[in-house]
Amino acid sequence: MIPEEPANPARTAGWVVTAVGAATLGAGLGLGINAKNLWNDANCARAGENYYCASAADQSDAETARTRANIATGLLVAGGTVAIAGVILVIVSSGGDDDAGGQGQRARARDAQRGAAGRGPQRSGAF
């Protein structure tokens, strides 16, 4: 009986990297929504790069919202990049296990140990 093939560490790492990327995307999305809500609550009007607020508290809320929006953008870009890298790692690490005959690497190794006819190891050579 052939023992079960161990998990491919590169494929496992790919899934972990994908999950980290997805979590980072989620954090960026959450922070972006929070920034948008904070901006909407501030009594400010934006004109180009400047904004004009009714009070100092509104000014503070607007600056906080802008900072959070910038961080959210960074998290979204980083999370997307990491998630894509993880998916690529999963795809690349799962390839090459099957050949035209459908045998996996473990089956090919077993066949090589048994020999071509299945009679056990074969010896050959020339003197």
Give the topology string: H per helix, E per strand: HEEHH
Secondary-structure class = mainly alpha
Proportion of residues in helical segments: 55-70%
- What is the count of β-strands? 2
Based on CA atoms alone, the radius of gyration comes out at 28 Å
For the record, give the distance between the C-alpha atoms at the N and C termini, rounded to a whole number. 37 Å
Q: Give the neighbour order of strands across the main sheet.
A: 1-2
Mean pLDDT: 83
Bulk shape: rod-shaped
Tell me the strand percentage band. 5-15%
Q: Which regions contain 5 or more consecutive residues with pLDDT less than 50?
A: 98-102
Query: Biggest β-sheet: count, sense, barrel?
Result: 2 strands, antiparallel
- Number of discrete helical segments: 3
Structural account:
- This protein has 127 residues and is mainly alpha-helical.
- 65% of the residues lie in helices and 6% in strands.
- The chain contains three helices and two strands.
- Strands 1-2 form a two-stranded antiparallel ribbon.
- The longest helix has 39 residues, at 56-94.
Question: How are the elements arranged and paired?
Answer:
Layout: H1 9-41, E1 44-47, E2 50-53, H2 56-94, H3 105-114
Antiparallel strand pairs: 1-2
